[in-house]
Predict the 3D structure of the following.
Amino acid sequence: MAKWVRPMAKASGVLMTGALLVVLVGAMQTSQTAPSATMQSFEPFQAPRDVDTTNLRGPRQPILYRHDIHAGQYQMDCRYCHGYVEVSSSPGLPSTAVCMGCHMVVQTQSPEVQKLAEAHNSGTPVEWVEVHELAQFVRFPHQRHVVAGQVACQECHGPVQEMVQVWQFSSLKMGWCLDCHKERGQTTDCTACHY
Amino acid sequence: MTDGMDRRKFLKVLGVTGGGTAALAGCSTDDVAKLIPYMVPVEDQIPGVATYYASTCRGCAAGCGVHVKVREGRAVKLEGNPEAPINRGKLCARSQASLQATYHPDRNRSAMMRQGEGLAPAEWEAALAEVATRLQAAPAGSVWFMHGTQTGSLDALIGEFVTAIGGRRLVFEAFAHEAVRHASRETFGRDEVPLYRFADAQYILSFGADFLETFMSPVEYTRGFADAHGYRDGRMAKYVHIEPRMSGTAMSADEWIAPTPGSEGTLALAMAQVIVERGLGRPPADARSLRAALASFTPDLAAQATDIDAATITRLAQEFAAGPSVALPGGIGTQHADAHRTAAAVNVLNYVAGNIGHTVEYGHGLRQGDGYATLREFTVAAEAGSIQVLLIHDANPVHASPSALNVSGALGHIPFVASFSRFQDETSAWAHVVLPDHDAMEQWNDWQPRAGVQMLLQPAMAPVFDTRQTGDVLLDLSRRMGRTPRQATYKEYVQARWADLQRTLGDRAPFDTFWRNALQRGGVWTEARPATVRLAAGATRVTNPAWAPTEGQLTLIAYPSSTFYDGRDAHVPWLQELPDPVTKMTWGSWVEIHPDTADRFGIMEGDVVQVTSAQGTVAVPAYLYPGLRPDVVAMPLGQGHTAYTRYATGVGVNTWSLLPGEAAVFGGAQHYVSVSLTRTSRHERLAKTEGRNRQLGRGIAQAVTLGGIAHGALDHPFHVAHAAPVPEREEHLLDEVAAAQRRATDYGPYALRNTRWGMTIDLSRCTGCNACVAACSAENNVPYIGAEQVRRGRAMQWIRIERYFEGGEHGEPLETRFVPMLCQHCGNAPCEPVCPVFAAYHTPDGLNGQVYNRCVGTRYCGNNCPYKVRYFNWYDMSEPGAPKFAWPDPMHWMLNPDVTVRSRGVMEKCTFCVQRIRGAQHRAATEGRALVDGEVRTACQQTCPADAITFGNMMDPEAQVTRTAADPRGYRVLEGLNTKPAVTYLMKVRHLEEA
């Protein structure tokens, strides 16, 4: 049974290299590795084909990018698009070139994909609306949480693989950070995050 | 639970309603943060992770290698390239601050052409066409190309360009060391400045050369000097400085000797005479031929000329001849009318002591500029109308030459001037067309600081403005004038020359491999073999130099500023606010007057004084400085710009306006001039960061002598000399308090089982150069605040160099001590318990944390800090549009994204570069390993040219910092307060026999 994907410390071949479906298949295979205590597992998710976009949670994005289809139904590894999460504070957003790697051939007739293709071909970047806005004066190193802390993406971001449109799952308030840090016996020093 | 409305809920509702109102009032989507990814991922950039590019600093001609730290496509910091042969990973203050020039709001943003009285932005096409037309129309020989020192490819390209159009080139450098070159030509037949090898010397004698400040290659020389003069295992070199003024360099000397101005050469000749007569040292065989020429320079006669007693001269000669030694002419000692004789005398002294070829090496091709005399030729030619077109690159002679020469008047005679200047300055104000060059961070180029060393420059980022590389512009102009250069772009031109270089080096790898390796390392370098030199005929014609001020007047020494060099860096606000190493003055000019002289004229510090020479007069505040002969006054060069960006214009006075326009015999400008002083009725409060210049027994900057160490001075720790006596009945109370504090420190929540970050600063290496201050500002987004706020004591630099004087009164020799003062990260910190909101608190790894978002600005912590290292944001320096906004667009592009930009009402201070600590910890944790000693380096430590600073975990017994802190010279400042600082200072050691 395919388990839900969690960034692996030593996964290879998942940084965006421009390879197309080969990497997609590879990513699906890396998701077969052994689960750990912090990992959450999910049944394969069948994304709804049609959704009512009027009442979706979360901010409206310029393109209705379906995490539920990509991450849930097709089980794409988060890192295929958010490729820097293991090396940088910032997980990174996919460039349109990464999107077009698949969508040159996949779902080219979809109006949302056509918006993407239009942006890509005209050289206009897509202006995504930020969902998870961290408070000022605080630093959050994704790489340390994901690699050293073995924290699954969903623990903070929620069941993104089921979200038609991404909404903010956690409060991202300091108390919420500290609850987790205390629970796991991690530092509660101010200058760990505030400097 | 009740449904009642408590305060918290009330505020929540209020907040939501408030937000709704705002949304109604404006367009709600304006407040939404947007995430905009790359269209195509950039190969070597990861958002959030820095990329480093090897390049070369172009702040002066020294050619230090840099690593440019780039975040999200923008250069944010310069670090020294550890491999580079000149600077070995270190940088000076000017280099550290230079990104402010890259992102300067007043940079020329596009090509410009003259429209009426002023210059207006123009299309590059039109500007280039205009220049090409003018060049083609100019009669042969009427085109001049004036530029600053150039080496390598651009030098070659300019040469080819000028030859092709039949023009003439003039290399203008304000400090071209003409006297040293002239003397080397006379004594050894070589037209160059030698390379001085300090590291091999046990005795260093400088005749006015400010080798730690501006002379030739300050970073390299500081490193060599600190290696030789730093105390280690009972040994260190001795450094004697001879100059009428104690310069910033002389402040590191063990002995400062102030001869009559201009008599340094006589002293050198008398020393040489003693060495030759007594057969001291290891002179080359032909040194005997100098015997007759030197015979008349006996110490007794020299004593009259130099005002130094004969016994001292003999002693200096003996000490000099005894060891591997080095004597340097240069700097201000070689800038008077007869200074080539001084330099020649010092050359002879080095020769008879056998230093040539050992500590003094020729054959490295060190020369900067054509010399001042050629600038005179230029003004004569311009006034005669024989210059039709002037191209000018990287030179500002209107400001950086004696006003008496009247370069601006000469420029007015030239029908067409094209400038490649990045800034509008006094010279480019005369331009008809401006073709702004790229900044060093934006261009392909190379640089050859000396024979055998080839450095590369590569663009670390896309150009900030619509500028073009001057090399490309010259190739373009060549094409427009009907020629076909072999290369289409300047980058290809550079590469073609590097392909030649590869062949010369006998490297058989494919060029691409050679080029990539060179780019990665920052260049290619080999050890050049020094040339063997022999005495030339001119050496025997040595004679004593003479300088005499006009009867009844004082000698003014106009010295180059270690901060602004010739004035080219006065547009960098961080440097304007960087306290001068000697006077601790910021944002302005001053005249240094000896306290006794000031008494005679009735002048107090801050009184505005009219300084009048035959050439002009300036009004400038007085700074009373004991480090001068009473018959000398001194002023720095570099300020007093009339049109050079918002930061330099109108700041201070132009000292060049006092200097004579005539060139000296050796072809240099004269920086000694007779002046008279007149006190005016005005008084200014000086914008200086100095509080007290005496320690008053506080033991802040401690020192021992070499003789003292030999006699066990380090066995007895320092005692506070002036501590108030404690009444007997209170003694036990104090003991109890101290014991309670120790308990809290050692066993309480502060118990440090894992990590305690600590630092050591070796005062026997520190030269007070300010590089750490500038590096800290660049790393930590420290704003500048302007002269008015500095006057109020609000300077923000997180690290400062405190400068204290010892002696200098009642016939005692004057001694200077430097102490870099930063947050001491006390184990028992006075700032922490007084903070009502726990913004100042102690971290588990031993830092004094400062949480900006908790701080409410009571300033209790600052008031309770005995070290005065906490700085308050009185104004909003971080808010665009605020009156004191310190980062006008695009200067904010250089802000370090890893450090919070503090806002008004917040206290800030040194964090021990906590962002670097956390960054290294994240890296180590991600790689599943522990931190290694030396992995975290603070910004000040990384750049320190003297390598005086170590940093690390004091709980690790093997760490270098722990071992260094255990040195018997170690002490902590104000240790008696039981603050338990994490910074250990190692006492300065003076190379003196007496204890």
Observations:
- Chain A touches chain B at residues 9, 16, 59, 84, 86-90, 92-98, 120, 123, 125-130, 133, 136-137, 139, 141, 143-144, 147-148, 187, 189-192, 194-195 (CB under 8 Å).
- Confidence is low (pLDDT under 50) at residues 1-40 of chain A.
- The first helix of chain A runs from residue 21 to 30.
